[in-house]
């Protein structure tokens, strides 16, 4: 299957069923009361983590996912049937964001983990719910609440303890072969690895951990050049970064210090919180003669950094590398980068002010025509259909409570003017 680690799609939960308007008509029962039932709840859109999936290809191909609407209430106080939920399976390691706001919605790290992202609309109440001593035969009913609609961005971030980073041909794939049972493609040309490769390693103390060979970086990757973000998103989950450097200096420049600084810059330009990750510098290809000279120069520049000298080809000093990784993992904090607070921001306190203002907008359209809009008006409009006289009275009362009619008077609405409220038009009779 093609490896796809980014997908955009739309989800929509089901609308709640409308309440029913009905009255008893049994033989020998005079003046039967209301018995309209409530509408059913709309279906939810639920995501489930599935360790059997390894790609977001399905989500990339299917752009829309909808749950079933709830069914309308019926006579004899019968409740409408609830709409069916829609389940969407995603690979373990998937992170879901609101594509419009970049808000984090869900992070799937365990198999069978579930998350409801779009909740189905609540069913409307039937007229049996509105009977009282003053109105024993109401024709009032409620429409079901609308479903939620969200544009989703899904990212698959590799779940690995350790990530191998470095320039193309630094020897990351050869090193992964040497420390695990993984068999990534190895060849003497850049970008041999174009998808993350995973392997499981064990050190001499029996500690096991997963290692990811991540595609090679080039200068400008943080801006999308080369494999760019196709690679960088995967490093965000890794607890430890192993920076693999070709000490023979065969790629980019012969200056191994410049090669190291180049990759460091790309990582921090992508996400400066990567600087908070534990880093192990792996001086690879020390079996090559030129590497010994470059290694002395590199150590002189970075005296305070942990450097492990290895050869992925000859497997020289592999055990020391595994022991260092195992020891570091025992103490490292497991925290995704997107949950780490930025120090610059967390030092400031943000004050917000609560407001009880309603979202009601009254506009003069000219020629005796007006419009009433706003989110609070929309809720009233959706919840209270004016298909019965009682509902029309209730609709008017709700708008009056929102202050819409006071605003019309203040702006100069005259008797006989037409007031447009979304798809309906009413005559102003004040």
TrEMBL record:
E.C. code: 3.6.5.-
Tree of life domain: Bacteria
Every Obg domain range: 1-159
Keyword terms: Cytoplasm, GTP-binding, Hydrolase, Magnesium, Metal-binding, Nucleotide-binding
Residues that hold Mg(2+) according to the record: 173, 193
Domain annotation OBG-type G: ranges: 160-330
UniProt keyword Hydrolase present: yes
Cofactors, names only: Mg(2+)
GO biological process: ribosome biogenesis
Residues where GTP binds: 166-173, 191-195, 213-216, 284-287, 311-313
Cited PROSITE patterns: G_OBG, GTP1_OBG, OBG, OCT
OCT domain segment(s): 352-430
One GO cellular component, as annotated: cytoplasm
Signal peptide region: none
Subunit-level organization: Monomer.
Similarity remark: Belongs to the TRAFAC class OBG-HflX-like GTPase superfamily. OBG GTPase family.
Function summary: An essential GTPase which binds GTP, GDP and possibly (p)ppGpp with moderate affinity, with high nucleotide exchange rates and a fairly low GTP hydrolysis rate. Plays a role in control of the cell cycle, stress response, ribosome biogenesis and in those bacteria that undergo differentiation, in morphogenesis control.
Name of the featured protein: GTPase Obg
Organism: Spiroplasma culicicola AES-1
Gene coding for it: obgE
């Amino acid at each position: 299957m093609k490896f796809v680690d980014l997908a955009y799609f739309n989800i929509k939960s089901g609308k709640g069923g409308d309440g029913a308007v009905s009255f008893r008509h049994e033989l020998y029962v005079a003046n039967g009361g209301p018995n309209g039932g409530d509408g059913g709840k709309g279906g939810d859109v639920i995501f489930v983590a599935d360790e059997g999936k390894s790609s977001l290809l399905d989500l990339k191909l299917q752009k829309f996912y909808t749950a079933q609407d709830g069914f309308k209430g019926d006579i004899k106080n019968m409740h409408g049937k609830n709409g069916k939920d829609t389940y969407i399976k995603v690979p373990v390691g998937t992170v879901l964001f609101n594509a419009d706001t970049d808000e984090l919605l869900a992070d799937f790290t365990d198999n069978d983990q579930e998350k409801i992202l779009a909740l189905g609309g609540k069913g409307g109440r039937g007229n049996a719910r509105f009977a009282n001593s003053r109105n024993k035969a109401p024709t009032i009913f409620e429409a079901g609440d609308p479903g939620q609609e969200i544009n989703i961005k899904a990212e698959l971030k590799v779940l690995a303890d350790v990530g191998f980073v470095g320039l193309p041909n630094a020897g990351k794939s050869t090193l992964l072969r040497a420390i695990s049972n993984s068999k990534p493609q190895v060849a003497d040309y850049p970008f041999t690895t174009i998808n993350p490769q995973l392997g499981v390693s064990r050190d001499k103390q029996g500690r096991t951990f997963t290692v990811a060979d991540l595609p090679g970086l080039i200068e400008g990757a943080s801006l999308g050049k080369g494999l760019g973000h196709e690679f960088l998103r995967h490093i965000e989950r890794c607890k430890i970064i192993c920076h693999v450097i070709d000490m023979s200096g065969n790629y980019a420049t012969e200056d191994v210090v410049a090669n190291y600084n180049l990759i460091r810059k790309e990582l921090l330009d992508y996400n400066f919180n990567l600087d908070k990750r534990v880093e192990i510098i792996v001086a690879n290809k020390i079996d090559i003669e030129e590497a010994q000279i470059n290694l002395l120069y590199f150590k002189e520049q970075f005296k305070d950094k942990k450097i492990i000298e290895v050869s992925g080809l000859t497997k020289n000093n592999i055990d020391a590398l595994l022991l260092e990784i195992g020891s570091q993992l025992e103490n490292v904090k497991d925290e995704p980068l997107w949950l780490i607070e930025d120090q610059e921001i967390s030092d400031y306190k943000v004050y917000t002010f609560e407001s009880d203002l309603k979202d009601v907008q009254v506009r003069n359209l000219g020629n005796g025509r007006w419009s009433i809009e706003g989110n609070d008006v929309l809720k009233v409009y959706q919840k209270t259909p004016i298909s019965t006289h009682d509902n029309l009275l209730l609709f008017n009362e709700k708008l009056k409570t929102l202050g819409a009619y006071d605003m019309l008077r203040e702006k100069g609405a005259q008797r006989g003017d037409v007031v447009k409220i979304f798809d309906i038009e009413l005559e102003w009779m004040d």
